Amino acid sequence: MQAGPAEAARGAPSFPWDDLFGTRPHRSHKSARRSAVPLPRPRPAEAPPAVTEAPAAAHAPAGAEPAPPAAATQPPAAPAEAARPSETAKPAEPPKPQLSACRQALTEEIAIAPSIPDIHGAGACGGEDLVRLEAIVLPDKRKVAVKPAAILRCRMAAAVADWVRTDIAPLAQTLGGGISNLDNFDSFECRGRNRVVGAQLSEHGRANALDVRAFGLANGKSISLTDRSVARDLRETVLHSVCARFSTVLGPGSDWYHEDHIHLDLAERRSNYRICQWNVYDPLPHVAPLLPAERPEAAPPREVAAKSDGGKLDAAKADHGKADAAESDDAAASDGAAETKPQPTKKRRQSRRF
């Protein structure tokens, strides 16, 4: 039995040059396999019959339109992005800056010190975590006003508030009803030390210093920290309290720039070096001595003193007379010497003419 052309072509060996001139018979492609189409499963017996909706349509009045299917009556749900376009278009708010530990501790129960924006001025002036110290709240809820309000770093403001609450308030309570206000001479100011042009940046320029001139009492009096009429013990007590709390204390005696106020700051130095220069001078006398002191009892009587003074005058006159006599004798001796000098005679004068 002769094999078919497909079998002959499949059985014959193939070489790369067999179909060089196109004489090789064309191979037929394999027929595509037919895939089985899945059929739906048979309707379960528990399902209701398909003709259950026909009676409802039969009872409908003539000319009435059939009700649309339930799926057609409900509009398609819009996507979430299309339902709220305004929320997606609104940019997200930046996160709020986290408060520092000092800002969290400096509450309204300690001081009225609202936060202010950071300051970045020329020459490294300014700082971060700044507050405006308006008042200090005492433990008994009374407020000590800072006049005028001081712009300070939070750490410096907390140190001032703790100093007033712990040291100054009990001290002022013994003077006249307690402290009512704090006299702020200077706080933040972008300048050099002692306001000298070209000097090193002051701690005032970093909002890290406060100049205190006095504090007021509830009875209306004012206690100046550099007034020599104030009791020395009081001023020394304030001196010890500030030198124990602040790294720099400058007052009278430090230089000519701090004779009428006290400079306080929290400057950081190597090895925690601290400066406390404040001379507490003795108080001035209340009444200046205008009359000379009384004559002591051991002094000689005035008459004897007058006689002794007269004797001294006589001795002085005698000495003066002796001096005059000696001068006259010297003058006479000089005159005698002048008279004994030989004078040229007339004869000699005549002989000289020749």
What report would you give on this structure?
- This protein is of the alpha+beta class.
- It has a domain at 101-277.
- The protein is 32% helix and 16% strand.
- It has helices at 5-11, 54-59, 70-73, 80-83, 85-89, 101-105, 154-176, 232-245, 302-339, 346-353, and strands at 111-112, 115-116, 119-120, 126-127, 130-137, 143-153, 179-186, 209-217, 222-224, 248-250, 262-265, 275-277.
- The strands form two sheets. Strands 1, 2, 5, 6, 7, 8, 9, 10, 11 and 12 form a ten-stranded mixed β-sheet that branches. A two-stranded antiparallel ribbon has the order 3-4.
- The protein starts with a helix and ends with a helix.
Radius of gyration: 59 Å
- Report on the biggest sheet: 10 strands, mixed
Low-confidence stretches: 53-60
Annotation, overall tally of beta strands: 12
Shape annotation = elongated
End-to-end Cα distance, whole Å, is 205 Å
Helical content band: 25-40%
H-E order: HHHHHHEEEEEEHEEEHEEEHH
Task: Provide a compact summary of the structure.
The chain is an alpha+beta fold. It contains ten helices and twelve strands. α7 (154-176) runs antiparallel to α8.
